[in-house]
Task: structure prediction
Amino acid sequence: MLYKNILLIDDDHDDAELFLEAVASLNKEISIRWIASPRAAMEELISSEYLPDLIFLDYNMPLINGGELLEKLKSNNRLSSIPVILISTPSEEFMKLKLEQNAIIKYFKKPNSYSELIAILDSIL
Result:
């Protein structure tokens, strides 16, 4: 398994709780952390000794959106190699550009059901 240490950055508490529960239900020995604030996530990533193997990044967040945080991650030499999957509803043009630039490895819209979320996560993890 490639991803054992995952970071979720999402300001929506309910969505994050559902995401954490879905990952736990996969029983794949994955450690997942959640940080609600993009600013706090960036500060922690910069100062942390251990980096995640994968970041799930919500796009629609106040103050700093996922696109802005992605730019900051990819412009930091130490953090730029962490694979990022954008979630939520950015424009398709934005997503295509970020995929072409290798800034993200995948994107998906937040699913409407728990079972759909589990299927998506199972295919990635």
Notes: The longest helix spans residues 13-25.
